[in-house]
């Protein structure tokens, strides 16, 4: 196997991992970052509509893009946003779990029911027709989505109805509780530390490669309260082993293959499962840096029934994703400031970044967590200060 096509919302980390593993990689994604284009054999733009739904692929256009690359692909790898990806439409192999298993794992309603059946701790769930029985605060999020962009907290009934109206407007609908029951999840809002477990799995076994601390809604990275802002790997916590065991149980129960992840909340009473990511995760960079492993190569091995030994930690690796707080044109000056920080997800000169969209990623790899965070914060401040000064001129 030599030629790989990656299709997803943001493919940079998958494409670069595959390139390091020695593959020819083409990409169809929504950003076509500068560093993705350097790693990829060729790339094309994934057209998508912003909203609280997973991306629905235009099969005919995708096939035309594949032909334009001029390669015979040995395999397709779906990335973020492709949980609804139906690979029956394509003739080449797809290195992913079955569409049915991926969709079940990604649907928060189905997951909640399955967690309840397995006796695994998870936030209490409510239905829209139970509004008068809800105990506030609750968090409201689309049943199928990614990144936390559309998650909102409701502290009373009025706020809950306002959130419903906002989500309906994104789908051009009037407020309809039956529609909301199918499209949103309402759960108890719990306090804790966001975290995740990155796993590799075959049909017979699962391996927890790393436990990661998640950076969610960090003020010096984003103004969105629930936006995913990166990771720190490893996450040293007394609940880590329990999270690993629960994550392994879940990926085997859902019959997931390859690289997958499970999100947790570390609470005072123990780990609580939040969701399953049936795909490569945003933590790929920090896991590879901290654990000295190539996750793409390990992912491919899983489909041959091979799983590696558990890797050892080399350092504390951190990734911080900076979101633009305004529409920002990427001129030469902005690009040079970003390049000076030696990060990833580098926007292309001459393009524009919309408000609340990821601008770039920063990395650090140190001997302790505190230095890793401090390094990210200093570098993010330099970029944000330059952008603010540019605006004020």
TrEMBL record:
Q: Which Gene3D superfamilies does the UniProt record give?
A: ATP-grasp fold, B domain
Organism of this sequence = Methanosarcina barkeri 3
Q: Does the keyword Protease apply?
A: no
Instruction: Give the molecular function GO annotations.
Output: ATP binding; ligase activity; metal ion binding
* Keyword set, alphabetical order: ATP-binding, Ligase, Nucleotide-binding
The segment(s) forming the ATP-grasp domain are: 112-304
* PROSITE patterns, alphabetized: ATP_GRASP
What does the entry list under GO cellular component?
cytosol
| Name this polypeptide is given | ATP-grasp domain-containing protein
Q: Which InterPro entries match?
A: ATP-grasp (IPR011761), ATP-grasp_PylC-type (IPR003806), UCP016817_carboligase (IPR016677)
Pfam families named among the record's database cross-references? ATP-grasp_3
